Amino acid sequence: MAPRDSTFLGWPVLRQLATGDLLGRGAAATSRRTREHQPRTVTADRVVQSVCPYCAVGCGQKVFVKDEKVVQIEGDPDSPVSRGRLCPKGAASEQLVNSPTRQTHVLYRAPGATEFRRMDRDEALDMVADRFVRSRADTWQELDDRGRRLRRTMGIASLGGATLDNEENYLMKKLFTAAGAIQIENQARI
């Protein structure tokens, strides 16, 4: 039927009559262009299992990769959490990965500065660690006014987000509690 698509014999109504697809729900309703299309997932070099980054639900995703570039992201039907379904944000996560405006470098704006500057990732991690340790040391409270043991810091707080899963929140709670912080909260609970 493909050669006749460009002639009047290829019109959908005539294809319906010729093929017996009177309701137009089968092959008669497809054009040559539609038949020639194939999904991006067919040409992928590999499929990687992942988890949606947007909320704490943890929906499973299948990430289709071709030439080391993400070409499609779909719900993973083997996921016990989402059984292949994704919300609109999860379904659009391919755009998050491939957006030309995606930030791929650490940016730092010094106090009082008006511009951001690129910073090496290891330098940024060292800066955060140094500030964390310094803040803890500078604000450590061993005893209260009456001599009762406190062993805490009010200079460090943690606010987790709903994009973190239970395991990540558990590790954050353990880290900040071990550091002596008592102001530990999660955005999902507020």
How is this structure best described in words?
A hairpin with an 8-residue loop joins strand 1 (46-51) and strand 2. The mean pLDDT is 86. The longest helix is centred in the C-terminal third of the chain and has 18 residues, at 121-138. This protein has 3 domains: 2-36, no CATH class; 46-98, 2-Layer Sandwich (Phosphorylase Kinase, domain 1), CATH 3.30.200; 139-186, no CATH class. The protein is built from 6 helices and 8 strands. It has helices spanning 12-19, 32-36, 88-91, 93-98, 121-138, 166-178; strands spanning 46-51, 60-66, 69-75, 106-108, 117-119, 140-143, 149-160, 181-186. The protein starts with 11 loop residues before the first helix and ends with a strand. It is an alpha+beta fold and 190 residues long. Strands 1-2-3 form a 3-stranded antiparallel sheet.
Question: Which SSEs are present, and which pair or pack?
Answer:
Blueprint lengths: L11 H8 L12 H5 L9 E6 L8 E7 L2 E7 L12 H4 L1 H6 L7 E3 L8 E3 L1 H18 L1 E4 L5 E12 L5 H13 L2 E6 L4
Parallel strand pairs: 7-8
Antiparallel strand pairs: 1-2, 2-3, 4-5, 6-7
CATH topology title of the largest domain: Phosphorylase Kinase, domain 1
| Secondary structure category | alpha+beta
The level 1 CATH classification of the largest domain is Alpha Beta
Percent of residues in helices? 25-40%
Number of helices: 6
What percent strand?
A: 25-35%
CATH architecture of the largest domain: 2-Layer Sandwich
User: Could you list the spans in which at least 5 consecutive residues all have pLDDT below 50?
Assistant: none
Radius of gyration: 28 Å
SSE topology string: HHEEEHHEEHEEHE
Query: Biggest β-sheet, characterized?
Result: 3 strands, antiparallel
Order of strands across the widest beta sheet? Answer: 1-2-3
Number of strands: 8
Tertiary shape: elongated
From the N-terminal CA to the C-terminal CA, the straight-line distance is: 61 Å
User: Averaging pLDDT over every residue, what do you get?
Assistant: 86
Total separate domains: 3
